[in-house]
Design brief:
Blueprint (H helix, E strand, L loop, with lengths): L3 H14 L5 H18 L6 H14 L2 H20 L27 H17 L4 H16 L3 H5 L6 E4 L2 E7 L5 E6 L2 H21 L13 H14 L8 H14 L4 H8 L4 H4 L1 H17 L10
Antiparallel strand pairs: 1-2, 2-3
Helix pairs in contact: 1-2, 2-4, 5-6, 6-8, 6-10, 10-13
């Protein structure tokens, strides 16, 4: 097997059926590797060609996208060398330096989260306990209370949501099909979920999904974003809020409250602690702001 396009097809099938990577990861690999094969245009992917590809990426995409696309190609060649499909990995001894600005996670102010939830609960009462609004409340509550990824949220099913013993137990299959458990004991959230599951039980089991759209089909990630935007508009808030910002807010809030970073890593499903450590920078900035705002020395005035 020598043709690059054939190797890419072989690798993607390996990732899907043997490594059992998630659909989101497979989609990213598929886009990145087909883009690389198209750039190569039948040429062998040697060091010079990869260097040219890096130059093309740097001129075309953001540094973050360049890093991801190169990681996909590097993983591809590493596996092909291991399986002896190629004589040598062209990334060996190839030094690649990609500088990109450090971007701290954007969080949502606590008062805005509270306002979003308050508006959703008020809307539920105004509309006579409308099921769609009840679903919106669950979307907002779970995003804020669990730090769940939006892709994971949309995949919740009767098998992964366990309401028993006054606890909510979420079995989440995230990146790389790794499972983790998140437990919630907040009475209000448990009551909302029980009410929703009781009223929509038949539709939930038919669709095999917890969260449903107006057509009784599983809620999409785009629909979740629309739900958030709808309540922001009602509050006349122009600030953009994404589902992933709820995840950042969840992690940063726990860190500020003193939770050990290893527990936060487990709750978020990060494979590496270095990924979780970025939140320490956000917490440190918050601590600095609080110190400047609350410490009594800031209220004292002296002149020389």
């Amino acid at each position: 097997m020598s043709n690059l396009e054939e190797l890419v097809v072989f690798y993607l099938e390996l990732c899907q059926y043997e490594k059992k990577l998630s659909q989101d990861t497979l989609k990213a690999y598929r886009i990145d590797l087909r883009q690389f094969a198209c750039f190569c245009a039948g040429r062998e992917g040697g060091k010079d060609l990869i260097s040219s590809y890096v130059k093309y990426l740097n001129e075309t995409f953001s540094p973050r996208s360049v890093k991801r696309k190169l990681a996909s190609v590097r993983a591809f060649y590493h596996t092909m060398e291991e399986l002896e499909q190629i004589p040598q990995n062209p990334f060996d001894k190839l030094r690649l330096h990609i500088q990109y600005p450090r971007q701290l996670p954007r969080t949502i102010p606590e008062d805005l989260v509270q306002a979003l939830l308050r508006e959703a609960y008020s809307e539920y009462r105004r509309r006579g306990e409308d099921l769609r609004v009840l679903r919106d409340i669950i979307v907002l509550e779970l995003l804020f209370s669990t730090g769940i990824r939006v892709s994971e949220l949309c995949k919740l099913s009767p098998q992964t949501v366990q309401l028993n013993e006054h606890k909510l137990r979420l079995l989440i299959s995230g990146k790389g099909r790794k499972e983790r458990i998140i437990q919630i004991e907040t009475p209000e959230i448990l009551h909302i979920l029980r009410t929703y599951c009781c009223r929509c039980g038949e539709q939930i089991h038919e669709a095999n999904a917890l969260l449903l759209n107006n057509r009784k089909m599983p809620l999409s990630q785009q629909s979740v974003r629309r739900i958030i935007r709808r309540y922001l508009l009602r509050l006349h808030v122009a600030q953009p809020v994404t589902p992933h910002m709820f995840r950042h807010t969840f992690a940063t809030s726990l860190l500020e409250a003193g939770m050990d970073i290893r527990y936060i890593q487990a709750l978020l499903g990060h494979s590496s602690i270095s990924t979780t450590q970025i939140y320490t920078h956000v917490a440190a900035e918050r601590q600095t702001a609080l110190l400047a705002e609350l410490h009594p020395r800031g209220k004292m005035n002296f002149t020389l």
